[in-house]
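Section 5.1 Outputs to date
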Amino acid sequence: MARCLICDNDIAPFMSFGRMPLANGFLLPEQFDDEYFFELKVGFCPRCTMVQLTELVDRSRMFHEQYPFFSSTSRRMSAHFEQFAGDIAARLASRDPFVMEIGSNDGILLQHFAQRGIRHLGIEPSANVAAIAQQKGVRTISKFFDEALAREIREEHGPADAILGANVMCHIPYLHSVIAGFKQLLAGDGVIVFEDPYLGDILAKTSYDQIYDEHAFYFSVGSIEHAFRRHDLELVDVQPQDVHGGEMRYVIAHAGARPVSPAVVDYRERERAQGLGDAATWDRFRRNVEASRESLLSLLRSIRADGKRVVGYAATSKSTTVTNYCGIGPDLVEFISDTTPIKQGKFSPGTHIPVRPHDDFARDYPEYALLFGWNHAREIMENEQAFRAAGGKWIVYVPDVRVIE
């Protein structure tokens, strides 16, 4: 039995994905013997409705000076964050506003505030990624955000008119310290705006590969309201986002400072109808995940039995969950094609599938490509029209296992 990270209630996992390595732990052969593993288990709290991991990995193992994810590699995400920044900039009423972002990565969002001459600060714990942001002229410090750091920032910069986050809040198990820091730092009329994978989409799409070590939480409108209410902060708006396989943008303010949008009320009702707060829902989710695994394995084995080649496309964090949970190794997937230099020449976590440059994929197209980067499917398929013209077929597994010709 584990304890809920939000309300300290007893919770039990509704599913185990088994022995799992670090999602971004791409490694060299000499590191195989010392590879770190843990049990990837996910549970549901019936009291506060938060879905969460029940065994956590130390943050220093996940976020460090060799972190291999850079947000700016996707054109679509670059456009998304440019629009995000524009939306926030339009909200700022202060004559000298201050904007802060936690988990600011390579400055993909804050660069738009820097270009406007708006005071800003990025908090990025992975030093190699923070260095890229600094080179762009984005003021960034390489630390983990918590209540103590919030006090330091307020003393130096004053209150924040906007506190931002994108695909980071769900990474932080010590969420109460972060929210308490937000409370101290936020200006009286300021807003906290962050977006993360949305639990309703994970359930609807059976996108179980969103579950991995870095994602401590899987947020819903109901669970976010509960967590922030404990700190006298109020959810005032929600805005669904069509990125990363389905996300929700949450807007938080001091309690009573802003009117609550009808969208919040609407999503409360949607989540009740979807059963996000019911334990039985997550038992059904487990069964759907198990069925997806069997379907994907059956398809891959059939293709390989016919003598056809399968290459993975995009060495994502999500791919680690899929390959290890399903038992997909080099016998089923020849290699994984990826454009990130820091991953190339290494091997996938746990299953040790080679990761090779995209040139290797384009030089000798396989018959099938297993799309691990399904959340960027539109952009990827637009870029890979030559693959399809050569007769190549895509294998996808979200929302169901199928072949796209």
